[in-house]
Amino acid sequence: MKIDESLPLEYSTEENRLKILGFWIFLGAEIALFSTLFAVYFTLHNGHGNGPSAEELFKITPVMIETVLLLTSSFTIGLGIHAMRLGLKKAMMTFFVITLVLGLGFLGTEIYEFVEYIHEGATIQTSAFTSSLMTLLGTHGAHVTFGLFWGTAILIQVAKRGLTPETANKSFIFSLYWHFLDVVWIFIFSFVYLKGMM
Amino acid sequence: MDRYYSRLSALKCSNVKLLTICSLFTRQLIRKGYSMKKKWLLLSAFFAMAAVLAGCENPLMVLDPKGPNAETLSDTIIMSIIVMCGILFVVYVLYAYMLVKYRASKMGEDYEPPHVHGSTKLEIIWTIIPIIIVVFLSVITVQSTKEVESKPLGYEDQEPLVIYAASSNWKWHFSYPEEGIETVNYVNMPVDRPVEFRLYSYGPITSFWIPQLAGQKYAMSAHVTKIHLAADVPGSYMGRNSNFNGAGYAQMEFEAQAMTAADYDEWVNDVKNTAPELTESEFDELLETDFVGRQSYSSTHLEFKPAPEGHHHGTPTAAEEDSAEEEMETAPSSDADHFHHQEAEE
Amino acid sequence: MESHEQQFLILNEPMIVAAMISIVVGALSLVIGVTYFKKWGYLWREWITTVDHKKIGVMYILVALVMLFRGGVDALLMRGQTAMPENGLLDAQHYNEIFTTHGVIMILFMAMPFIIGLMNVVTPLQIGARDVAFPRLNSVSFWLFAVGAGLFNISFIIGGSPDAGWSAYFPLASLEFSPTVGNNYYAISLQIAGLGTLMTGINFLVTILKMRAPGMTLMKMPMFTWSILITNVIIVFAFPVLTVALALMTMDRQFGTKFFAMQDGGMDMLWANLFWVWGHPEVYIVILPAFGIYSEIISTFARKNLYGYKSMVVSMVAISLLSFVVWAHHFYTMGHGVMVNSVFSITTMLIAVPTGVKIFNWLLTLHKGKISFTTPMLYSLAFIPIFTIGGVTGVMLAMASADYQYHNTMFLVAHFHYVLIPGTVFAVIAGFHFWFPKVFGFRLNEKLGKLAFWFITISFNVAFFPLFILGLNGMTRRMYTYSESTGYGPLNMLSFVGAVGLGIGFIILVYNLYWSIRYSPRDETGDPWDARSLEWATHGPVPFYNFARIPQVNELDAFWHAKKHNKQLWSGPIEKIHMPSNSGMPFLMSGAFFAAGFCLVFSWWIPTIIFTILIFVFMALRSFEQDHGYYVSVEEVERIERELGGDK
Question: Which residue range is the domain that position B274 belongs to?
Fold first, then answer.
């Protein structure tokens, strides 16, 4: 394994560079995936049948909490990567833990929100609007959930093996993933919630 | 599940059934006091059809139009075939030239092909010429599409006859709101008058197609689509669903008959006077049935189950809701139908 | 209440029972054979756990050939049923299942894996790499595809096949109108195979972008590699749409959501839109690599460099972009008005421009060439005139107004077979003959190859040209029967004769494989065709590390120039080679995918959840695994090189 000292740790080997490019392309595919889900939502969001409409369903408070939590977590993981580049393993791990806790908070709030929806008689089966809404939110939420497990696995590896080219590479890729979820959420927040509440 | 079974069993004997039903119906028509002239017409139409279909020298259905809409399309198709033959000719000549001239067996042992990068000039030429062809074809496409999507040429000043055509399982319902009659699996129309078909479906997407009169269009459950056509020549034309919609698809044909205005009026009166009324329960039963032969009724289902007109993406306009509500008072519709029902928004 | 839709094993169809028995007997004899010859260890070590791109490619092609057989039998049955009016070979239900599986199998489980197989075998060799960027992921891709294909194929004996057409339009494909599990199979098996394809897309993009031999700039890449690069861009952006569409289908059918429902605000045509937003680019996913294959073969056997290299690249990029903005031409007839139809007509017709450029470039490549008529070249040459018919009829179909008369007819069926068979099928067969000696070290027999070629080419036209005429005479597709009075009988019979001829052609092709394995003389040079690109520079069969020393590239057709000017492609001493290690995990994880998918088809929730968790367990295991491959020592490389007949 040839390690190129002139590059940051996560880019230092050929394998690492391939993985980072591969992950960027994967994110391209993810953009196509979420774009399709958004397109489905925009096509169907007026089809609420007998169920509630967006205006009736959406509440601002949980959405604001979710937004703040996720945006903050995106910031803290950025700090984590910064710490990693400085070789500060402990700081990096702390920021990653904070990120995951914030992510967990986001997920909890979203689950609470879903439970509320169901109480108001809006399940995924109610109408095309609720189907597309919950699928879009659910896909994002599932990504966050997967991220929590993934992030935990990486944290364990960093703790056990230290900051190696391999763990640094994984952490960096994970941060890309996390930022991406944040970007998707910004779109959900603006074009689903804000637009729906207006 | 029973329904599924009955579909299958119906299917097995449906060919025979359809045939007998057709012949019975023809005989009935004749017995019902149709004049000799009409009998002759029917027969001649039948023979004409048979002749067209049997012989190779006869034109193909799509290229044998009997009305302005189909004629526009036939002309467009023939024109495009000619252009395409021209393109094929150029490619084939070049191809044959290369293959004949540059075979290894002719080139000699030590012939060494030159290294040729390409030629900007040539490459521009064979980019520009196809673009010109595409522009030409685009103009024709836009024109002809516009033409067949509006009232037929030569009939612009006439009020069209509106016929609703709805599909359910493997049959077609034709409603004539003006005349207040309805038929199943056959449609009659006067010649020399524009006809506007309004299409929708009780179930899977179907495609309404009478090749000799007009191009096809989908019938869907959420909203109504339209076909404009006119028949120039009296005759019996094949009509069918061309979009696969399950087990009975192959048999989903109907007869489209164009007749003189006088004959048409006579037929309408005949149906009005002799055919039974279509009640809602009867219609619901009819919807559930897989196959039926020809039917005629002296009222339409539009009165109790209006077509999904103006439902864009499932949102009815206020005016339509009102009319729908009015109709519901007179004939409350069941919620169990396959149809797109929207509750009025508070 | 025992009825068709609730049967687990389909036992009321003699033909299906016969197929079932033959499958069981075949599988059993395979197992017994492998056990008897003690080959389990070999299979596991050399194939199942392999991460070698060449072996993975071979496995892809093997599955594709089996699927070609399955799809071909479907086709013969269809043509047999419609050969005569009122024929009773198949009933409506059986016919509907068969045309559905024929479409799905031929596109997704035959054309795609054949292309991906060739891509696997050839691309790394052409760019002078030792493997793909992510060899382990490549193995996952293959096994996901394989279990997807397996899952789809068991549907006709367990639970019933999908019967709503390969495009599975809603509402027909909804639970109400397609109550069997058939369309669950459709959604889930395509989902699994599609995941594999998406990973292939990412893998090959990185491989081509990052792992080219030194000196090989993008504009010095062989045309096949270019076509693969563009194809994989399309895969990465088109397949997620399919993923979403299939997920929504599964949810509508099994979780009661309302996406495509006829009530509660659903929209049936949304499915058609999503399907074709993926479906049309998919056509180019299987056509562009074919263009690449033809470019390689035509320039090799015309003994001339490819004419207009740059415009070839530009036209492929143009086609790939246009492929995303034409999807609505699949349903001009849904009534979206003159404006929308016109726009899509124009974008569709525009595709003819870059395609035309390519045709002329191929013709001019032949100009002043020295054409030798080998089997791969014959297929490539037959492609030009036949595909042009497919192309021009495509332009005819692109004209929205005229399409009102072609839509859903045999004319359309004839058109897309005229595109896909000379386009994709001829290309993969040509590529198969062309690269076979590279992988196995001997050529397929030319005599048998040419015999098969003539059978296939002539029969193809006999089978499909009549359909143009039938379409113009008003015969719609997907009709299991028609009455005699329609007059469709004779031409359909002719078409059936052609289909049988095609079948015979493919049997000759397979026989050629058998014959050549036994008797074909072994090639010692590694370059039997006197070809041009890097894959021919190394030995044939290729050693597992591909190149003992990585070649240095200075121009297009580097190997050809090296041969002409007696130059060396590599310099310096042999160094130790880093290679990825094999792993059984992709196979096992795909097994979990298969089990989860199968249970999901039948809505057995608890086993589905258990197997899904198992999938994630495999992913976690992979995350914690530390595996950086291994090194092949210089002595080992030198020994292998000597055995293969000299330093390369």
Answer: 161-312+324-330
pLDDT at C116 over 60: yes
How many angstroms away from the CA of C85 is the closest CA of chain A? 43
Per-residue pLDDT reduced to its tens digit, C305-316: 999 999 999 999
pLDDT at C34: 84
Q: Using an 8 Å CB-CB cutoff, list chain A residues near C277.
A: 36
Instruction: Give yes or no for A69 touching C (CB within 8 A).
Output: no
Q: Which chains touch A (3 or more CB pairs under 8 A)?
A: B, C
- Cα gap A8→A160, rounded to integer Å: 21
Domain assignment present for C596: no
Is residue C5 domain-shared with residue C145, that is, in the same domain? no
CATH number, domain of A58, equals: 1.20.120.80
Question: Are residues A49 and C258, on separate chains, in Cβ contact within 8 Å?
Answer: yes
Determine, yes or no, domain membership for C619: no
Whether C29 and C59 map to the same domain: the answer is no
C355-411 per-position pLDDT tens digit: 999 999 999 999 999 999 999 999 999 999 999 999 999 999 999 999 999 999 999
Number of folded domains that form chain A: 1
CATH of the domain at B210: 2.60.40.420
CA-based nearest distance C161→chain A, Å: 27
Q: Which amino acid is at B44?
A: S
C20 with C162, same domain: the answer is: no
The two beta strands, B186-190 and C630-632, are: unpaired
In a domain, A90, yes or no: yes
Q: Which of C208, C231, C258 is most worth mutating to test chain A (most A CB atoms within 10 A of its CB)? A: C258
pLDDT over 80 at B26, yes or no: no
Residue with tokens 């803290």: A76
Q: What is the DSSP string of C257-289?
A: --TT-SSTT--HHHHHHHHHHHHHHHHHHHHHH
Residue (of C207, C92, C106, C189) closest to C149 by Cα position: C189
Region of residue C174 (phi > 0: left; psi between -120 and 50: alpha; otherwise: beta): beta
Q: Considering the domain boundaries, does residue B277 fall inside one? A: yes
Domain annotation covers residue B247? yes
Q: Are residues C278 and C235 in the same domain?
A: yes
Per-residue pLDDT tens for C586-618?
A: 999 999 999 999 999 999 999 999 999 999 999
In a domain, residue A1? The reply is no
Give dist(CA C516, CA C522) in Å, integer.
Answer: 10
Residue, of B14 and C230, whose pLDDT is higher = C230
pLDDT category at B10 given cuts 50, 70, 90 is very low
**Containing structural domain, residue C19:** 1-38
Mean pLDDT of C450-457: 96
Please provide the DSSP assignment of C584-640 as one string: SHHHHHHHHHHHHHHHHHTT-HHHHHHHHHHHHHHHHHHHH-----EEE-HHHHHHH
A39 touches chain B (CB under 8 A): no
